[in-house]
Amino acid sequence: MTKAATTISTRTRWVYAFGGGAADGGAHMKELLGGKGANLAEMSALGLPVPPGFTITTEACNHYFDKGRTHPGDLAEQVSAALARVEALVGKGFGDAANPLLVSVRSGARASMPGMMDTVLNLGLNDQTVEGLARLAGDRRFAFDSYRRFIQMYSNVVLGLDHHMFEEILDDKKDVLGVTIDTALGADDWRAVVADYKAEVLRELGEPFPQDPQAQLWGAIGAVFDSWMNDRAQFYRRLHDIPEAWGTAVNVQSMVFGNMGETSATGVAFTRNPSTGENRLYGEFLINAQGEDVVAGIRTPQPLTRAAREEMGETAPSMEEAMPEVYGQFSEVVGRLERHYRDMQDIEFTVERGRLYMLQTRGGKRTAKAALKIAVDMATEGLITRDEAILRVDPASLDQLLHPTIDPNAEREIIATGLPASPGAATGKIVFTAEAAEREGALEPVILVREETSPEDIRGMDAARGVVTARGGMTSHAAVVARGMGRACVCGAAELVIDAKAGEMRARGRVWREGDVITIDGSLGEVLAGSIAMIEPELSGDFRLLMGWADAVRRLKVRANAETPLDARTARQFGAEGIGLVRTEHMFFDEDRLAAVREMILADDEAGRRAPLERILPMQRGDFVELLNIMDGYPVTFRLLDPPLHEFLPHTEAEVAAVAQATGLDAAKLLRRAAELRETNPMLGHRGCRLGISYPEIYEMQVRAIIEAACEVAASGKAAPAPEIMHTLVAKAEEMNILRGLTDRVAKQVMSERGVTINYTVGAMIELPRAALAAGEIAKSAEFFSFGTNDLTQTTFGISRDDSGRFLNTYIDKGVFEKDPFVSIDAEGVGALVRLGAERGRAARPGMKLGICGEHGGDPASIAFCESVGLDYVSCSAYRVPIARLAAAQAALGARAAASQAALSVRKD
Amino acid sequence: MTKAATTISTRTRWVYAFGGGAADGGAHMKELLGGKGANLAEMSALGLPVPPGFTITTEACNHYFDKGRTHPGDLAEQVSAALARVEALVGKGFGDAANPLLVSVRSGARASMPGMMDTVLNLGLNDQTVEGLARLAGDRRFAFDSYRRFIQMYSNVVLGLDHHMFEEILDDKKDVLGVTIDTALGADDWRAVVADYKAEVLRELGEPFPQDPQAQLWGAIGAVFDSWMNDRAQFYRRLHDIPEAWGTAVNVQSMVFGNMGETSATGVAFTRNPSTGENRLYGEFLINAQGEDVVAGIRTPQPLTRAAREEMGETAPSMEEAMPEVYGQFSEVVGRLERHYRDMQDIEFTVERGRLYMLQTRGGKRTAKAALKIAVDMATEGLITRDEAILRVDPASLDQLLHPTIDPNAEREIIATGLPASPGAATGKIVFTAEAAEREGALEPVILVREETSPEDIRGMDAARGVVTARGGMTSHAAVVARGMGRACVCGAAELVIDAKAGEMRARGRVWREGDVITIDGSLGEVLAGSIAMIEPELSGDFRLLMGWADAVRRLKVRANAETPLDARTARQFGAEGIGLVRTEHMFFDEDRLAAVREMILADDEAGRRAPLERILPMQRGDFVELLNIMDGYPVTFRLLDPPLHEFLPHTEAEVAAVAQATGLDAAKLLRRAAELRETNPMLGHRGCRLGISYPEIYEMQVRAIIEAACEVAASGKAAPAPEIMHTLVAKAEEMNILRGLTDRVAKQVMSERGVTINYTVGAMIELPRAALAAGEIAKSAEFFSFGTNDLTQTTFGISRDDSGRFLNTYIDKGVFEKDPFVSIDAEGVGALVRLGAERGRAARPGMKLGICGEHGGDPASIAFCESVGLDYVSCSAYRVPIARLAAAQAALGARAAASQAALSVRKD
How would you classify the pairing of strands A355-363 and A282-287? Predict the structure, then answer.
């Protein structure tokens, strides 16, 4: 309920007035008035001191473009009426030579679009009114300086002239006068500059600079509208997915001047500290200055409060000290604005001769840390609810709080850029092999730099502080594993030409050698030279508080994908409620296991495979006991052997020779077997449950290891273990039937041998379109589903995540993809299959447990999707567990809001 | 309406009598009586001379297994009544020592299950009845020979004794007598053998051989039932997907003897020639013999007719000459049977002392050639309708008629076996490289033997008569290309160890060198030693006639996948109605083009790519003009560049060096670029429309070539060309929008340059699950869809066809796949996506043209699926066009039958 400023009875209201303690619009009218106009109206209606003005609506803008760049017939009349209201409120006349009203003209779209169009200030000045301004201000220099600024701005923004020509004129003038700074010019100097400027406009355009304020005004209005279609604006809109149909509003506002002497000032303020979130007024101001002076950085602004000044050790007085009365008023207004908007505000203000004017307010941008603190504080203060606090923090931003980050003030010398594959920053010496990483990493920090990584590199990756690859996308092996380990990682830095043999890499014409120190920023995808200052993460009380609130709200459980005891412990510390994915083959890469695994692969028949499997069994069992113990009764989903067997063999002749020598295996046989097993498309090859069906003895060993481990844990008197045995790459119910039979047979046998009953379940990883389609049939033998959306995205789109780097950027640039579908789930395609699979699965087996264990499990947008499908849990890498907890809470709140909205609309019907 | 033989008023009738000109059952009762029993009943009811007997139903079999291997309480009573009826009809008594009735006991399931259980003949003989038989037959030797045969059979089949022990006894006897053949034994000798046999049974079982005919009968009935569950039967059922619940019937029939002297005989006959289809009685018989003698091959059977005897130059009289009266009767009966069953019959008969008995009739197996001729002849004779004739020929069998085949009488020495990848046979000298194939193939026939083939081998494959690969499945590159070219091909012959460098291959311990002559049988998947006699195909008038009838009936259009003028001409000759898939990149592999293509790939920027594209343009245009001309107004679907660019580059250092030298391209750059472009999963890589979106200039060139070609053809005054431009690997509507824009822009430009309007359309290949899901959106810019079910199968199942060979056989063995899903479409999964895509596409664009261009387009089962989805056309390799035409006709008839069935059931409701 804002107080109406004007009453206009035309059919369409194109103009909304504000100021003088009243407004036609309000903050809720952003679509019609744009963000700036709506907030100016809101502040006016609140009775705050806003220079009066009016907003021409976005609808007028749309009319303008729909009708061949012409204005609505009644716009002129409405603008006149609104202008007359402004004249009345400020007691000046637009174009009045003795008592001139000056205005600013600014664009203002629904969404902030920085740089779309420059502001025009001081509009209304001409050769007559400049004299009136001089008299009113008692400052002739000020008046002509204002006039020349206006001519320059208007000529550039409205008339389309290059601003360089005006700067040249001014520079020439200064040369002639022998001065270097603007302040050295007097009133007459500026007057002369004005004359030169006008002559220049006449020369360039063949027409004089417009002297009629009405013509100036309509010129500026048209220019604001036109700017909506300029290249910069179109590019920005495409980039941010802003519809052209939104249009822009135009704000016309009476000018106030912060540069009218020592009782005038201008400044910006945040109601709380936007870096730390601290609840103290934060900002800076300049006496006798205009807004652009604050930005230009010629003079150093002063802090607002005395406390801030003292902390900074400044001597120049703060606003609190320099103009205590105005400061008192400002402080009161600012508090009121925050309470009114119920959020931290970013405010612009001007003081003209001791009088405060509010020019803008909007929600303030803030760091992740500040967002967290402000949300928790405001909820504690009672300003917002806990639910609102949960919604105020961007889950993805938590990543910044969980990893070290590069000091924002540090200088960065970029060596190469790639994808921001795993957040955080790390510094260390370059190593080019996993072995070197293991060896050197034990002594000092290293960064592992590889063409790409493979499962054999895991120990080296673990030993390194960070990982860089020249190839691979956001879900390449390096990226997935690094995120899982919480290691910083930059992937696909294609500029790097790596010569591991020579122990060097080249990029941008420079050579970096093994042992050189580099820093990587995994949050930005940058590889940087040398060692750079870091900020360590601190998981404050606020973090735990907000997480607790989130946990109370969310419906989705959050689990982690984890194989190592370290991962599992990290996951528990971050609040994981179980493991959603143990990739059981990761343990095969340990040195002592790998030899047995290779022996198994080289065997000619089942009997030959069984012997090495016997040796692997106790090792796998030991691993599984540890995971089940750490998870202390929470469910643990064991996915049986998934990758094709050739991943476990050495490939090049040199690697083969090394392995043969180390293990005593036959080199020729190794090489032949590797060649035999080579696949054209390993992603679509002999892997997953296809291995278990071809070589049942492998899965028998794994099932035995899981159930034996569970028996051991159960016998130890700890919380009852809850193993979930998951079969992967299932496409048909027939596969699941075979695998269910195998699993139950072995489990029964082990339980009877041990005399222990284990509450295990058997399920399917749904990661093929065929499986989603056949989910109803598969659910007859699968007790749970886990949607493997990494592979499901690969197969649904027919895109290999390892190879997608070559065209993904083009696809995002050309608008084919809004986001990388491996990062955020493609709801219409991949998501449709998840939904179908969930529906068909639950139809066949009511209430069956459903989860997701792809990388999407840690992506907020994807988690919202999972909530909408009604999954039971998401599982993600340990370091994303807090993100998932918060995103799950937001998704639950979103779902509740949608439900109550729906209930409301039903009641209305 | 068969005449009832008996009237039994029990609640369940377990026993159905036949013989004596009447029967309780008929041919329509195969489910209850099994195939043999139903046909015996049918012949009896027709009044044909069938030895009387009865059939115990499959329901009795099911009861037997359901109730712990016990018979229904009233079965004994029903068997007694039926046996009494037989006794009355033949005037003998079962177990009557003076006038004994002997019976045969045979199993008979709904489907023929050869070898499931041996027959028991002469049941009812014992130490008393054998004397009666001797007197009745007036032949004591015959009686005891019959008795010893019975003991041997019964002991083996019912009592489970090894038949070797009986053979040993007989051999010992012959040694003692100093004779070598059975006929040398007299009545007393056989009597002694009988005694020894009985003694052996007693020794083995501890019980005497059963003398009570009733005990013999029930023993045999139980044995027949038990045989339903033996290993052989279970294996056969699993193999042929026969449900266990079908059960088997038991046929008990009075014995007749073809071995009662010179007026007795036994024989088999086909009502038409099963090899050629010729409408003449065909078969053979033996005087004074039992059925097993015909099979055993000790005596040479004689032809049935005089004409056949004379043709064969035989002197022994035919049945027509030896027993003219019986022959006359037989000839009449046989004609009646064919007319009655309206199909060629396979008949068994016996003549006992001048009296004809019919023992079995069933539809006769026949060669593809005979099936064709018989179907066409019968339709021409008016015996069946043309629709029925269409349904009588297995479309897949036409393959035999279109390719040379190995003479079935020739000896085969198998070198190695693989997959029957492309039908037909070919003989030639071994070559191990595509270059050698080109060079040598021009001079004499060669067979190209490779580890696997790649697009670079195409010219070599074309120059060879046949292709053998050691790796790859039914849809590997070699298989697909060979089928397209009509070349015989054996794929995945894993036994072959090929050493191309050494110019030799090894298999089964032998070495074959370049230049050695081999023969391949692509229909069976065999590689054979030396040159083998062939039968050339002959496309007779019958073939054209049947194809014409099929064309009149089918709704689906049939197109071919073709790139070369030769393929296109072959396709037209086989009746293709257009080209459904021109893989435009196939032309890139021609030597003169490849250089330009490689130069384009090596270029650093768009400008660098445009120059070689300019050189490729006229060549592509020329190709397209030729295809459009050959297709003479029929539609031609041009699929733009699909494979990843690395397929066009040499890979090994040696290849690179050769290319660099030949073309002047920079070797280092070639190698580097090949490495850069290398993909982990090329199937899911930077290919298809992803290339067109990354490098629009390539697609622009191709669209230009197509439209310029169409303009040329249109200007030449020939039939208006109908080019369809197809974009491949589309996943999202956004891609199609971009590509549609590109296509229309270039097309418009070309048409305006040339002043010609071309009626082109732009469509999408739907080959990704994502595309099927988004079909509604994609259809907004796609004017047609072609379902690429090869890739759709790969992505839906997550199975690479190049790598599937390793587990496909295991999957088929274990029942996961019924058929290779790359051969026959997976209706529930891949098919569901095709159906979804078709429905969503047509919902968005009513009546849009839909086709299929995967390998499935030539598979009859998949064609029936396409009919059910309502596609407009199928497209397959040229040599499969006739198969597709016939299969499409059958599918249309099937759909009509289903529709009228549905209409009937609606009327009934």
Answer: unpaired
Known catalytic residue: B28? no
Nearest Cα to Cα of residue A448 among A400, A494, A488: A488
DSSP bridge partners of B431: B448
- For A698-727, letters b (16+ CB in 10 Å) and e give bbbbbbbbbbbbbbbbbeeeeeebbbbbbb
Question: Which positions of A are catalytic?
Answer: 477, 853
Beta strands in A503-614 (DSSP E): 504-507, 510-513, 517-521, 526-529, 534-535, 557-561, 579-583
Residues A354 and A280: beta-carbon distance below 8 Å: no
Using alpha carbons, select from A56, A47, A46, A48 the residue that is nearest to residue A16.
A56
**CA–CA distance, B566 with B626 (Å, rounded to integer):** 10
Determine the average pLDDT of the residues in B42-58: 96
DSSP structure string for B825-855: --TTTHHHHHHHHHHHHHHHSTT-EEEE-SG
Are B326 and B318 a contacting pair, CB within 8 Å? no
Rounded to whole angstroms, the Cα distance separating A760 from B127 reads 66
Select from B680, B799, B832 the Cβ nearest to the Cβ of A773: B832
B791-849 pLDDT, tens digit per residue, is 999 999 999 988 888 898 889 888 899 889 999 999 999 999 999 999 999 999 999 99
Model pTM score: 0.82
Other beta carbons within 10 Å of B764: 32
Q: Are A530 and A429 in contact (CB under 8 A)?
A: no
Contact between B550 and B889 under an 8 Å Cβ cutoff? The reply is: yes
Q: How far is CA B428 from CA B414, B458, B467, B477, B520, in A?
A: 15, 18, 10, 21, 9
Nearest one of A101, A88, A90 to A129, comparing CA atoms: A101
- What would the pLDDT profile of B295-340 be if each residue is shown by its tens digit? 555 677 889 999 999 988 888 899 999 999 999 999 999 999 999 9
Q: How many CB atoms lie within 10 A of CB A128?
A: 15
Mutate which of A690, A767, A820, A826 to disrupt the B interface (most B C-beta within 10 Å)?
Answer: A690
C-alpha span between A310 and A304 (Å, rounded): 11
Pick B681's closest partner by Cβ from A681, A769, A829: A681
Tokens representing A830 are 């991949």
Cβ neighbours of residue A543 closer than 8 Å, sequence gap 6 or more: A372, A398, A401, A882
Angle between helices A860-869 and A881-908 (to 10 degrees): 50
Q: Are B65 and B243 in contact (CB under 8 A)?
A: no
Q: What are phi and psi of B859, to 5 degrees?
A: -105, 120
Considering only the beta carbons, identify the residue of B682, B734, B794 that sits closest to A816. B734
Q: Which of B685, B870, B877 is nearest to A801 (CA)?
A: B685
Give me the torsion for CA of B799, B804, B807, B812, rounded to 10°: 80
CA-derived radius of gyration, chain B: 34
- ipTM field: 0.81
Give the chain A residue nearest B826 (alpha carbons). A770
Coil vs helix vs strand at B506: strand
Q: Classify the phi-psi angles of B101: left when phi > 0, otherwise alpha if psi is within -120 to 50, otherwise beta.
A: beta
Distance, CA of A730 to CA of B798 (rounded, Å): 10
